[in-house]
Amino acid sequence: MPIIYHEQAEEFHLCNDTLSYIIYALPNGHLGQLYCGKRLRDRASFTHRMGNGCRPVTATPMQEHPYFSLEFAMQEYPCFGSTDYRQPAFELVQENGSSISDFRLIDHKIYGGKPELEGLPHSYTEDDSEATTLELTLRDPLTQAELTLYYTIFEGMGVLARSARFRNGGSQTLRLERAMSLSVDFPDHDFEWVQFSGAWGRERAPKVRPLEMGVTAVESMRGHSSPHQNPFVILKRPNADENSGEVYGFSLVYSGNFLAQAEVDTYDVTRFTMGINPRQFCWKLAPGESFQTPEALMTYSGAGMNGMSQSLHKLLQTRVARGYWRDRPPPGAAEQLGGHRHGVHRGERAEHRQKGRGGRREAVRAGRRLVRQAHRVLRPGGLVRGQIQAAQRRQGPGG
């Protein structure tokens, strides 16, 4: 089974042939993370990977655990305050202005398949055997707000789909001012950050730099991901190349304002978060209301950049894309116009009459409109040429 629950240790081991991802309950009931990477052989407990110990100048929230502090714990979906002073995954503000939360694990579900995210683009399954989903439900005892974390691990691909859902189960109105889709803590910072930035006509230029103590981030506030910044980031080991080495890829299934960032603390622990850009974001949660974050995809490859790319592309092409053209090469604009003017092969005509006739007809009509608009703009005296000629006349013979 791709998700194994060890009840005595309160650990969840999500695994397939490529990936292992291990979650456990911290002493205070919050969720911690033990491992993310190459597939591990399952065992009764992985708590030997915990790094608790006495460290100077720190705060401990539990008297019975003097060496436990959230500041140094690798966490699954960290909240603000409560001895953790790094960037949180979410921030929920109460009516009195407090933004400290205390979400504790109360329930979990494991089932085949993948749930729908209403109103949002997301990955999916066509059969429950293709993936397994883990739902972790946490509750804040003071506000009675509930947080549900969704994890879906796919068979045959090193991909994990994640999202979060907040529900106000209390009596006061809450404000959600930060709600990331994904948060991952790594025990070291030996990574190179790769983002894809640019501008119109030169999009997706790779920018590579090593992670250092502090914050490395890429974001967009344009209302969409735009040609300038892209909601996709790679963390790779310095020795990783196209065909070897460890590579982690993170993709947000959302095209609005976004933030992706990696924070390296003073003990070289890396926290990666991705989701809706919290700047200018505020969602009112009245009693009984809920908020669903967009989905984020995380992929791991031990076979370099090419392995990561193939795994993610396979999922995007077969279980994110939808509709008639998902498994067929879509006709390009030139082919659409050419087919209209010179006729389409007999076999294609028969296929399109049976399926997708309306979509192709509309594509041809759109192509005609584009051609007519281009002719109007570029003809003598048209918009572009008219503007150029008017500028030349204003400049005179010597312009």
Written overview of the protein:
- Residues 337-346 and 377-388 have low confidence and may be disordered.
- 35% of the residues are buried.
- This protein is 18% helix and 34% strand.
- The longest helix has 22 residues, at 357-378.
- The termini are far apart.
- The strands form three sheets. Strands 6, 7, 8, 9, 11, 12, 14, 15, 19 and 20 form a ten-stranded antiparallel β-sheet that branches. Strands 5, 10, 13, 16, 17 and 18 form a six-stranded antiparallel β-sheet that branches. A four-stranded antiparallel β-sheet has the order 1-2-3-4, with no helix packed on it.
- It has helices at residues 304-319, 333-342, 346-354, 357-378, 383-395, and strands spanning 3-6, 11-15, 19-25, 31-38, 90-93, 104-112, 131-139, 145-154, 159-168, 174-186, 192-197, 205-210, 214-220, 232-236, 247-253, 258-264, 270-276, 283-285, 290-292, 295-301.
- The chain is an alpha+beta fold and 399 residues long.
Brief synopsis:
The protein is α+β, with helices and mostly antiparallel strands.
Q: Can you give keywords for this protein?
A:
single chain, 399 residues, alpha+beta, 5 helices, 20 strands
Please tally the β strands and state the result. Answer: 20
CA-based gyration radius = 25 Å
Give the biggest sheet. 10 strands, antiparallel
Low-confidence blocks of residues: 337-346, 377-388
Number of helices: 5
Which range does the strand content fall in? 25-35%
Dominant shape: globular
Taking the alpha carbons of the first and last residues, their distance comes to 76 Å
- The secondary-structure element order is EEEEEEEEEEEEEEEEEEEEHHHHH
Class derived from helix and strand content: alpha+beta
Nearest-integer average pLDDT: 86
Helix content: 10-25%
